């Protein structure tokens, strides 16, 4: 199923049913009183998070979601049936925004959360309700109330403990495939990963965490350059970041240049993103001359903790898992 993380849809709750105008018509009761029943309430539109869902693909073609209208009232004081609620299943981490005002209506993060976004219209009262001692034969009833209509934007931000960030070709896809059971596409060219990939990493027999491979960021990403802003939002919900750097591509004249580019993009996109705890990891340490470049980077980074690994050979992966776990326990 294709990964879709944004959708604009229109939702409508059901209209209330009409109240009924009716009078008793029974043998030997020539002047039966009013007996029109009330209309039923319209159905609500309810969003519910389902942990098995990971994309907004269902809304790619389904742009109008409408709950059932309430049924009309009937004679003999029979009330109309309530319209059936429309339960809309979405992945956890979905934000609902009013497209007219730009205001966030609700942000559903946890699984099995429910939120009624549009309430069905009230059913109209039948003429029985309008009978009084001075007006015994009301020949009118109340119409049903219209349901609510909203145009909203759904936006999915993946929920993960750890987000892997870095320039294209840093080895993010290889790393998540080695550390978890995820199977992203891997190749030696930029933007191999076109959608975020989630994987569960196990540490020992009891501990585990969810890791997200965020597609490669480049300079100008916060403005939409490259895959840009489309994927920066998926880093927002992560607890910590793994800043992955290709040690074999470090410019020894300016060793922190690539590292600084990514951090600058995070800061320009969101102050909150820039302040997330980072673990700096130098990958591809097995490649010729990469160790020397890594030493230059570590010296330039001064007090920043740096871990060296080779995702291709598995060197340093166990140590990396343990360090991630320690950082997660702290944050």
UniProtKB/TrEMBL annotation:
Record-listed E.C. numbers: 3.6.5.-
Keyword Repeat: no
GO cellular component terms, semicolon-separated: cytoplasm
Sites where the protein binds GTP: 166-173, 191-195, 213-216, 283-286, 310-312
Record Pfam families: GTP1_OBG, MMR_HSR1
GO molecular function: GTP binding; GTPase activity; magnesium ion binding; ribosome binding
This protein's UniProt keywords: Cytoplasm, GTP-binding, Hydrolase, Magnesium, Metal-binding, Nucleotide-binding
Ranges of residues in domain Obg: 1-159
Cofactor field: Mg(2+)
Subcellular location: Cytoplasm
InterPro entries: G_OBG, GTP-bd, GTP-bd_Obg/CgtA, GTP1-OBG_CS, GTP1_OBG_dom, GTP1_OBG_dom_sf, OBG_GTPase, P-loop_NTPase
Primary site of residence: cytoplasm
All residue ranges annotated as the OBG-type G domain in the record: 160-329
GO biological process per UniProt: ribosome biogenesis
Enzyme class per UniProt: hydrolase
Residues annotated for Mg(2+) binding in this entry: 173, 193
UniProt keyword Acyltransferase, yes or no: no
Assembly mode: Monomer.
Family per record: Belongs to the TRAFAC class OBG-HflX-like GTPase superfamily. OBG GTPase family.
Functional description taken from the UniProt entry: An essential GTPase which binds GTP, GDP and possibly (p)ppGpp with moderate affinity, with high nucleotide exchange rates and a fairly low GTP hydrolysis rate. Plays a role in control of the cell cycle, stress response, ribosome biogenesis and in those bacteria that undergo differentiation, in morphogenesis control.
Name of the protein: GTPase Obg
Species of origin: uncultured Desulfobacterium sp
């Amino acid at each position: 199923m294709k990964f879709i993380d944004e959708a604009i849809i229109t939702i409508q709750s059901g209209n209330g049913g009409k109240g009924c105008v009716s009078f008793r018509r029974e043998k030997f009761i020539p002047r039966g009183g009013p007996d029109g029943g009330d209309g039923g309430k319209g159905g609500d539109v309810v969003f519910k998070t389902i942990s098995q869902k990971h994309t907004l693909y269902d809304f790619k073609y389904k742009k109008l979601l409408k709950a059932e209208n309430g049924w009309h009232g009937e004679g003999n004081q029979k009330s109309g049936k309530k319209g059936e609620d429309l339960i809309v299943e979405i992945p956890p981490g979905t934000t609902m925004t009013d497209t007219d005002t730009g205001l966030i209506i609700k942000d559903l993060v946890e699984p099995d959360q429910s939120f009624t976004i549009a309430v069905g219209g009230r059913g109209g009262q039948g003429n029985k309700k309008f009978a009084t001692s001075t007006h015994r034969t009301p020949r009118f009833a109340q119409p049903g109330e219209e349901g609510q209509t909203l145009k909203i934007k759904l936006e999915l931000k993946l929920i993960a403990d750890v987000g892997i960030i870095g320039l294209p070709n840093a080895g993010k896809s290889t790393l998540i495939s080695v550390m978890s059971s995820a199977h992203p596409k891997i190749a030696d060219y930029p933007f191999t990963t076109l959608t975020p990939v989630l994987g569960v990493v196990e540490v020992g027999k009891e501990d585990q965490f969810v890791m997200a491979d965020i597609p490669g960021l480049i300079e100008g990403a916060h403005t939409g350059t490259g895959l840009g802003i489309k994927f920066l939002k998926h880093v927002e919900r992560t607890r910590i970041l793994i800043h992955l750097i290709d040690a074999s591509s470090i410019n020894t004249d300016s060793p922190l240049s690539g590292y600084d580019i990514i951090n600058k993009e995070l800061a320009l996109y969101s102050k909150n993103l820039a302040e997330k705890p980072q673990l700096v990891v130098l990958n591809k340490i097995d490649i010729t001359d990469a160790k020397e470049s890594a030493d230059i980077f570590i010296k330039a980074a001064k007090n920043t903790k740096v871990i060296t690994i080779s995702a291709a050979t598995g060197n340093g992966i166990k140590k990396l898992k343990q360090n991630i776990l320690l950082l997660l326990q702290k944050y």
